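A student in our group prepared the protein record below, which I am reviewing. This is what I was given:
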Amino acid sequence: MAFCSPQFLIFFILVCGLNFVLKNPVRKYLLLFASLVFIGWFNLYTLGAVVFFSGFTFIIAARVTGDKNAFIFYFGLLVNCLAIVLFNYLLASDGLVIFSLNAVDFSVNALLLLVGLSFYNLQHVAYLVDVRRKRIPPEKNFLDFLLISAYFPKFISGPLTLYQQLRPQINWPAPQQINLGQGFNRMVLGFFKKMVLADRLAPSVASVFDYNDELPGITVMSAAILFTIQLYFDFSGYSDIAIGASKMLGIDLPENFDFPLRARSVTEFWRKWHRSLIHFFTTYIFYPVSFRYRRYKKHAAAIAVILTFFVSALWHGIGFTFMMWALCHMVYLLFELYVGNTSGASPGRLKRLVSAALILILVSFSNIFFRSTSSAACMHLLSRLFNFDFFPENWAVEVLAPIAVGGHQADLFNLVATFFFLCLTVLFERKIFEYASTSRFRPVITFLFILLIFVFGVFGNSQRFIYMQF
C-alpha cells in the first residue's frame, strides 16, 4: 500500500475519520490495528517479523537493567543488528526469495521482501540502549509498545522515531481541526515533491545510470547532480507525507530535512540531511566514540567519523559501491575537520551560492557510487567522468538527448517543464515549507498544488520511494 496509491488514500481517509471521532483508549487501538493492516498489505512476512521482533525486544528490555544481565542486553542487540543486515539483502524477484549483496534496485517493479524493517530494528536498538542506560523505563504494555514500533506513517522509511518521542503522544486526545489543516497541507506538498519533481527526474537519471553508453563526463556529472536532487525530493516528499499524515492523526513526528541543498559545507549538509537517522548515528555511535577517545582531541572526532560512516555504509548495503560512497564522505568530513570548510563567517550572497554549488557537486560525485547498480556500472561511469572527453563535440546529441530521454519535441517539453518546477521549488522552498506547515488553510494555493499534481504528476508508472529499499 504505497503512499501514492489510491488504496492508501482510501485507507487513510477511513482511519483518519474514525480517529477524529474516537477517544482513547479506543483511538490508540484503532491506530494499532491500522498499522498492522498497513504492514500486512505489503506482505504477511513483514507483519510476522514485526510482531516477532516487537515481542522479542519487549521481553529482552524487561531484563536488561541489572548489572548481571549484560549478556541478555548484548544478545538483544545482536539479534536486532543481524536482522537489519539480513533484511537489507532479501529480495523478492519473480516469485523467488533471493539473498543479494548488491540489493539496490532502482527499477519500478522491484519490491523488497521485508520492506521497512531496517528502520524498524534501528528503533529497537536505540530502545534497548536507552533502557540499559536507564534513560527510559521499559514499557510494560506490549500493545502500546507494538503501536510505537509499528506506527504506520513512519514505518517504511521513517522519520526514525525513538520510543520516548512517541510514548507520551499515544495517549493524547483526538486531534483538533488545526491538526487536519496542517497535516493536509504537508501531505499535498509531499505528493507534489514526489510525483511532479522526483518521478519526473527519474527517467533522466536512469537513462545515464542504467545503460553502458559512451557518454561524455559532463553528462555523467549532470546526471549525478540530478540524482542528488531527485533523491532529496523523493525522500523529503515521503517525509512530508508521513509527517502530514501523522499530524492529521494527532501525533507529531520529527522533521527529517532542513533545506540541505543550501548547505555550505559537508558537515552542514549532514546536519540538514535525513536528520532523524543522523541523530541516531550521532547519539549512539559518534558521541560515545568521541567521548571514549576524547584524550586524542580532533583525532577522536576523526575516529568517530570513520566508524559512523562505516556503519552507515553497512546499513545501506554490503558492497564496493556503498563503501566508496562512505569513503567519499569520510574524506570530505576529515578535510573539513583538519583543514576547514567553505562556510566561513557571514559570507556574502555570491560566496554562499558558490559554496552551496561546490557542496552539491561533491555530494553528487559520491552519489555516483550510491546510485550505481553494480561495481562494473560504477567503474564505467567513473571512466567516462575522468577521461579527455569530458566536454562533448555535439551537446544536443551527447548531453541534451540522454538527459531528455530521447531528445524529441515531447521529451524536451517534459524536461523544460520539470526544470521549471524544480527551479521554482528550490528558489522558494522556504516559503513553500512555511505555507505547508501553517495551520491556516488557503484553498487557492492548495488547489493550485493539487492541480499541478494531476496535470504534471507521474501516475501510471510512478516510481516507488527510493528509501523503501534500505
About this structure: The CA atoms of residues 225 and 364 lie 5 Å apart. The chain has two domains: 6-174, 179-469. Residues 179-469 form one domain.
